[in-house]
Amino acid sequence: MRTHCIPYGRRDKYEQFKIRHRVMRDMIKKHGIKYCCESGMMWGPVEAWNTVFRVDPISVAYKTLGDPLWVELQQMFGEVNEETVHPAVQSSAGNGFMPVQVDVDSLKGKHPLE
Known about the structure:
Blueprint: H1 11-29, E1 34-35, E2 42-43, H2 46-55, H3 70-76, H4 87-93
Antiparallel strand pairs: 1-2
């Protein structure tokens, strides 16, 4: 997605989403942190977490819960064929249908990034 196509005033929000997507993707793909898409829980060895915290301080927010917008972030940034993809996104890639939306309201107050 080109940032020059984003309306003025929304670029900051786009950049926040881009960072959230990169951090979550890197935690799963590069550092071996595991993510359960059903519960939203994340886990991994202490060494992996220590490395992640040094590389991306924002990752501390993901210590117990992954990003509640992970499905939407993957859709926004066109990630549908990678190992980090949420099953709802993977299954919708071939049929052209959007997956059921995450009930973000039920997650309010449970994640430090909101």
